[in-house]
C-alpha cells in the first residue's frame, strides 16, 4: 500500500512524493520541469498575502499564473473577480500582484477580460495575453452569463476558475458548484435531508465544452505539474480557453490546513473530480486513476460531510449516491483504464 | 458637413470621428440605431483600428468597456432605460475606477409598467454614480457633446454620460453639421490614460480599500466633479473656438433679462419651452428659460447667479422621486439656499407623454397668477386616477394597476367601473 493510504491526521511529517507516482524535477527533462522549479519563475503573486494557511486557491493561482507568465514571456495581464483571491492579495495599501491586475466586480471578470483583450487587439499588441480568474461563485453563478458570452464569441481570454465549492469569502454559503449533501452556512445539516440538495449539478467544464471553445481542462492542486502543463498548453491557443482548478478550502470544508494536497489527491482518486482535457468540445485526454479509493475516504476527513457518517440511512444512501456520481465520472472519462496508454 | 440625418446616426458618425478603439453594444430601444450605425462604420472600414463587440447584456457591455478603458483604449458604448439599470453596478464601478468611458444614454422611462418612450428616470437613477451627466437639447448638441465628452472624460479621468431624449432626439431627422475628421483631430488629442494596464509597469487597479482611506477616495471623486465644473465650460469654449458654434457648457440661458418667472429644464423639451416663452414675451410677460446641460456635476453657482433675481422658478422635469417629488427641483432648491424665491416642481413628459405648448402656456400662466401648487403633475388625468383609487377601495383584489388603467381607457372612462 502507498504512503497515502496509511495517512493519519496525527502524522507530523509527510513526504508527498512518496507513493504518488510524482517524479522529482531532477529526473525530468529540462523542458518538462515545473515552472516553480525554475530560478527564473516570475512570482506573479508574492508572499505576504492574507490567504488562510493551507489555502488551495493561493497555491493554484500562483502555479497557474506563473505558468501563464512563462508562456506569455512575461506579457500577461490579469482580471480578477471579487472573492477570496481578490481580497487576500490586495489588502489596502498592499498588493501581491507583480503583473497588471484589474478587479472590477463579482460577476463581470470574463467581460472585463474581453475588453482588455479587445484593447490589445485594437492597439496591435496581441502579444500581451489576458487571463481572467475567479472562484466558483463568480464563475458558475453570478458571472456565468458573461462567461458564456466570452466563450460564445471565442474572445482571446484564458479563464481560470478556482473551485472551492462554495462562497468562502462571504462565510461559506452554497454556490452552484457545492456538491450534494455538503454543509455550508446556507445548507446546514438539519432536517430530513441535511446539507446541500442533490440537484442536477452545474458542471462548468462540460458547459464550457458545449461552447466548443478551443481548450478546456480540469486540474487539481494535488498535481501541480499537470496544472502547469495544462496552463502552458492553454496558452498555446488563441480564443476562449477554460481551466477549472479544484482548490480545497480548509476553513470552509473543515479540513486541516496541512491536508489540502491530501484532500485534493483523494477527490481525483475517488472519481468525484475527473482530470481531463478537451479541445474543440471533445475530450482528448484524461488522467487515469491509479489507486482508486471509495468516496468515503474523500468525504470522511471533511467536517462539511460529517453528518453523512452518523450511521443513519440518510448517510448511507447519500454516500451511495455520491459513489454513483464518482462511478459515472469514471465511466464517462474512462478513468480506470490501463494507465500505460497515457504514459508519454 | 451639413446633413439631414437621424439623431442616432449623427451621434454614431460623430463618435466615429473621435477615433474610439473599442465599442461594445447591446441593443435596447431607443439606443439601437446608434450602435447599429457604429457597427456598420467599423465593419465597412470607415472607422479603423476599432473593435466592435456584440455582447450578451448591458452589464457585459459596460464591463467590456471597463476592461478596454483600463487597458488604455478609448472606449464608447450606449444604452437606455432598463439597460442602464442592468449595468448599474458597472456604472458605479467605472466611475470608482476613474475610467474615461463615454456612453450615450438614450433617455427612456423605467418599468414597470414597461414603457419604451422618453423620460429622464433612467439618468436620474444613476445621478450619484460619479459619472458626469450632460443633457443635449438638440441633435446638433447631442453630436457636439460627444466630441466634448471624450475630451472632458480623458482630461479628468472620469466617465461621461451624454443624455439625449429617446425617440424625440434619437429618431428625429434634422439638419446636423457633422464635423470633418481634421477638425475633430485638432480638437481631441489621442487618449493618454492616467492609469493603464501595462506589463512594463504593472499596477493593481481595483484593490480593496477599507475605512482607513475610503472616505478620501470618495471625496476625491467629489473633487473631480468640482474640477469638472471648471473643465466643462473650458472645453465648451475650446469647442466654440475650433468648431465655431456653441454647444455644451454648464447651463444654457434664454431670455433671462429682467425675468420674473424662470423655467428650469433639461433636454429637448427646452425647445418647446422656448417657443412658449417667446409667445409670452411678445405678450409682455417677463419669463425666461434656463436649460441645464451639466446635471452632474450640478452647476449650483451658475444657477444661483442666473436664478436669484426671479420671483418664481418652475423646474420642469421628466422624472421624480416617488414619495417625495422633484429631483432636479431639489437640486435647484439647494443651489438657491437663502434666496427668497418660490420654486415649483412640475413633473411632465413621463413615459413619452407629449409636453404641449398649450399645456405649458396654461402652466406658466397659473404660476404667474399664484395658482400653481408646489408639486404639480402636468396633464395628470385626475379622473382616471380617482377611478383606480375607487377600485382599490372597493376591493383588496382590485388587480394590476396597469391593466386596470388600460381597460379604463378602452372602455371610455366611467364605463370601466362596471
Characterise the protein shown here.
The complex is a heterodimer of chains A (344) and B (418). Chain A has 11 helices and 8 strands. Chain A has a single domain, classed as Rossmann fold (3-Layer(aba) Sandwich). Helices cover 32% and strands 12% of the residues of chain A. Chain A has 344 residues and is of the alpha/beta class. In chain A, strands 2-1-3-4-6-5-7-8 form an 8-stranded mixed sheet, sandwiched between helices. With 418 residues, chain B is an alpha/beta fold. Chain B has 3 domains: 2-197 and 204-243, 3-Layer(aba) Sandwich (Rossmann fold); 251-377, Rossmann fold (3-Layer(aba) Sandwich), CATH 3.40.50; 382-417, no CATH class. Chain B is built from 15 helices and 16 strands. In chain B, the strands form 3 sheets. Chain B has a 7-stranded mixed sheet with strand order 3-2-4-5-7-6-13, sandwiched between helices. The model of chain B has no long low-confidence stretch (mean pLDDT 97). Chains A and B meet through strand 1, strand 2, helix 3 and helix 5 of A and strand 3, helix 3, helix 5 and strand 9 of B. Strand 2 of chain A pairs parallel with strand 9 (204-205) of chain B.
Structural shape of chain A:
globular
Question: Unreliable segments of chain A (pLDDT under 50, ≥5 consecutive)?
Answer: 1-5
Number of helices of chain A: 11
What is the architecture of chain A at the second tier of CATH?
3-Layer(aba) Sandwich
Strand element count of chain B: 16
Brief overview:
The complex is a heterodimer of chains A (344) and B (418). Chain A has 344 residues and is α/β, with parallel strands linked by helices. Chain A has a single domain, classed as Thiamin diphosphate (ThDP)-binding fold, Pyr/PP domains (Rossmann fold).
List keywords for this structure.
heterodimer, A: 344 residues, alpha/beta, Rossmann fold, 8-stranded mixed sheet, 11 helices, globular, B: 418 residues, 7-stranded mixed sheet, 6-stranded mixed sheet, 15 helices, 16 strands, 18% strand
Amino acid at each position: 500500500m502507498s504512503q497515502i493510504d496509511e495517512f493519519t491526521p496525527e502524522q507530523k511529517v509527510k513526504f508527498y512524493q512518496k507513493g504518488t507516482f510524482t517524479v522529482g524535477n531532477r529526473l525530468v527533462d529540462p523542458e518538462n520541469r515545473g515552472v516553480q522549479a525554475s530560478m527564473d519563475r516570475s512570482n506573479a503573486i508574492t508572499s505576504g498575502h492574507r490567504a488562510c494557511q493551507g489555502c488551495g486557491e493561493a497555491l493554484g493561482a500562483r502555479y497557474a499564473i506563473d505558468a501563464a507568465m512563462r508562456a506569455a514571456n512575461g506579457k500577461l495581464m490579469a482580471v480578477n473577480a471579487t472573492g477570496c483571491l481578490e481580497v487576500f492579495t490586495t489588502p489596502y495599501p498592499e498588493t501581491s500582484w507583480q503583473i497588471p491586475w484589474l478587479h472590477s466586480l463579482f460577476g463581470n471578470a470574463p467581460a472585463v477580460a474581453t475588453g482588455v483583450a479587445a484593447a490589445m487587439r485594437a492597439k496591435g499588441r496581441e502579444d500581451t495575453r489576458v487571463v481572467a480568474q475567479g472562484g466558483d461563485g463568480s464563475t458558475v453563478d453570478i458571472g456565468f452569463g458573461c462567461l458564456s458570452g466570452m466563450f460564445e464569441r471565442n474572445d482571446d481570454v484564458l479563464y481560470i476558475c478556482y473551485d472551492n465549492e462554495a462562497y468562502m469569502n462571504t462565510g461559506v454559503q452554497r454556490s452552484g458548484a457545492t456538491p450534494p449533501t455538503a454543509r455550508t452556512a446556507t445548507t446546514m445539516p438539519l432536517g430530513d435531508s441535511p446539507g446541500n440538495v442533490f440537484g442536477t449539478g452545474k458542471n462548468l467544464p462540460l458547459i464550457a465544452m458545449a461552447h466548443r471553445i478551443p481548450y478546456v481542462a480540469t486540474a487539481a492542486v494535488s498535481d501541480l505539474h499537470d496544472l502547469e502543463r495544462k496552463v502552458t498548453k492553454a496558452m498555446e491557443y488563441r480564443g476562449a480557453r477554460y481551466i477549472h482548478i479544484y482548490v480545497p478550502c480548509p476553513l470552509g470544508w473543515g479540513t486541516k490546513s496541512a491536508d489540502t494536497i491530501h484532500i485534493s489527491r483523494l477527490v481525483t482518486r475517488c472519481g468525484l473530480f475527473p482530470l481531463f482535457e478537451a479541445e474543440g468540445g471533445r475530450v482528448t485526454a484524461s488522467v487515469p486513476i491509479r489507486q482508486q479509493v471509495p468516496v468515503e475516504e474523500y468525504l470522511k476527513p471533511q467536517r462539511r460531510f460529517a453528518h453523512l457518517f452518523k450511521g443513519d440511512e440518510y448517510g448511507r444512501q447519500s454516500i451511495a449516491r455520491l459513489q454513483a456520481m464518482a462511478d459515472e465520472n469514471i465511466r464517462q472519462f474512462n478513468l480506470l483504464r490501463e494507465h500505460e496508454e497515457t504514459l508519454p | 458637413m451639413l446633413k439631414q440625418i437621424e439623431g442616432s446616426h449623427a451621434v454614431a458618425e460623430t463618435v466615429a470621428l473621435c477615433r474610439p478603439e473599442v465599442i461594445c453594444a447591446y441593443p435596447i430601444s431607443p439606443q439601437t440605431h446608434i450602435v447599429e450605425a457604429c457597427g456598420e462604420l467599423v465593419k465597412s472600414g470607415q472607422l479603423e483600428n476599432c473593435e466592435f463587440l456584440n455582447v450578451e447584456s448591458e452589464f457585459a457591455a459596460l464591463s467590456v468597456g471597463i476592461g478596454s478603458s483600463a487597458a488604455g483604449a478609448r472606449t464608447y458604448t450606449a444604452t437606455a432605460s432598463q439597460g442602464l439599470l442592468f449595468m448599474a453596478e458597472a456604472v458605479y464601478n467605472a466611475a470608482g475606477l476613474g475610467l474615461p468611458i463615454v456612453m450615450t444614454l438614450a433617455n427612456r422611462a423605467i418599468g414597470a409598467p414597461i414603457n419604451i418612450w422618453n423620460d429622464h428616470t433612467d439618468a436620474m437613477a444613476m445621478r450619484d454614480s460619479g459619472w458626469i451627466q450632460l443633457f443635449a437639447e438638440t441633435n446638433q448638441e447631442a453630436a457636439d457633446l460627444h466630441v466634448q465628452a471624450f475630451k472632458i472624460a480623458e482630461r479628468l479621468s472620469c466617465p461621461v454620460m451624454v443624455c439625449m431624449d429617446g425617440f424625440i432626439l434619437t429618431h428625429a431627422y434634422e439638419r446636423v453639421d457633422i464635423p470633418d475628421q481634421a477638425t475633430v483631430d485638432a480638437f481631441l488629442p489621442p487618449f493618454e490614460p492616467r492609469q493603464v494596464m501595462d506589463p512594463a509597469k504593472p499596477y493593481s487597479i481595483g484593490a480593496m480599500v477599507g475605512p482607513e482611506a475610503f472616505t478620501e477616495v470618495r471625496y476625491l471623486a467629489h473633487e473631480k466633479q468640482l474640477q469638472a465644473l471648471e473643465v466643462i465650460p473650458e472645453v465648451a469654449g475650446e469647442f466654440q473656438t475650433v468648431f465655431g458654434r456653441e454647444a455644451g457648457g454648464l447651463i444654457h440661458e434664454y431670455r433671462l433679462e429682467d425675468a420674473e418667472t424662470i423655467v428650469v429644464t433639461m433636454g429637448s423639451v427646452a425647445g418647446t419651452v422656448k417657443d412658449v416663452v417667446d409667445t409670452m414675451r411678445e405678450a409682455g410677460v417677463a419669463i425666461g428659460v434656463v436649460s441645464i446641460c451639466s446635471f452632474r456635476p450640478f452647476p449650483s453657482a451658475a444657477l444661483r447667479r442666473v436664478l436669484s433675481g426671479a420671483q418664481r422658478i418652475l423646474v420642469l422635469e421628466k422624472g421624480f422621486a416617488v414619495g417625495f417629488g422633484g429631483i432636479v427641483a431639489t437640486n435647484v432648491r439647494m443651489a438657491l439656499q437663502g434666496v427668497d424665491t418660490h420654486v415649483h416642481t412640475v413633473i411632465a413628459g413621463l413615459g413619452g407623454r407629449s409636453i404641449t405648448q398649450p399645456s405649458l402656456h396654461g402652466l406658466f400662466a397659473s404660476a404667474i397668477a399664484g395658482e400653481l401648487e408646489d408639486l404639480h403633475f402636468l396633464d395628470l388625468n385626475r379622473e382616471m386616477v380617482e377611478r383606480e383609487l375607487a377600485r382599490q377601495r372597493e376591493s383588496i383584489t382590485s388587480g394590476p394597476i396597469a391593466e386596470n388603467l388600460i381597460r379604463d381607457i378602452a372602455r371610455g372612462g366611467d364605463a370601466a367601473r362596471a
